[in-house]
Amino acid sequence: AFFVAEAKGYYRDEGLEVKILPGNGSGSTTKLVAEGLFKIGYADSATMAKFFADGYATKSVAVFTQTSPMSLVTLAETPIRTWQDIRGKKIGITISDAASALFKVVLGKLQLQESDVEILKIATPHARGKALMEKRIDGFFGYYINEPPRLEYQYGAELSWLPIVDLDIRFLSSSIIVNPQFLATHGETVRKFVRASQKGLRY
Questions:
Q1: Residue 111 exposed, middle or buried by CB count within 10 Å (0-12, 13-18, 19+)
Q2: pLDDT tens string 132-167
Q3: Angle 26-34/45-53 helices, nearest 10 degrees?
Q4: 139-143 and 90-94 strand pairing
């Protein structure tokens, strides 16, 4: 949505000059917005709520994904075919993204303990994809709407995934979040940004 809005001039049409920067996961993005280093960000709603409880205040102004596409992403050749198959497997978790906040919920649904899987903490979303391709992990948590297509395009690999909705874990997902002070003083700017971004999403 954001790159399309930038490329199509939707932000420019609203009188905005937007610079799109990597946030390295929802947790990192939420912290950066809360601290005012970023004014606006895009983050998983559940992660935003967790960090809000930890003292990192942000405001969600538009939810783009109503049901989370979070999934366990694996290579198609993996022996992981069902959720119960993760027992004893190496699972990559990006330190500051949405998956780190959700993994315990998934284990609880499966009636598993953290000791039942081997958790490898990975610095960035890009690094976890590379780790999967190099078979250093058996799977990782990510959005099936973007991670498999990206890795299939980049590496020519065939991917599979298990959505967490199959475990009846449902919640709002990706949303535009804003620094509260910036929202209070630049509400019209935020409205313009949301309007242009929604136009990019619909394109």
A1: exposed
A2: 999 999 999 888 988 999 999 999 999 999 999 999
A3: 50
A4: parallel
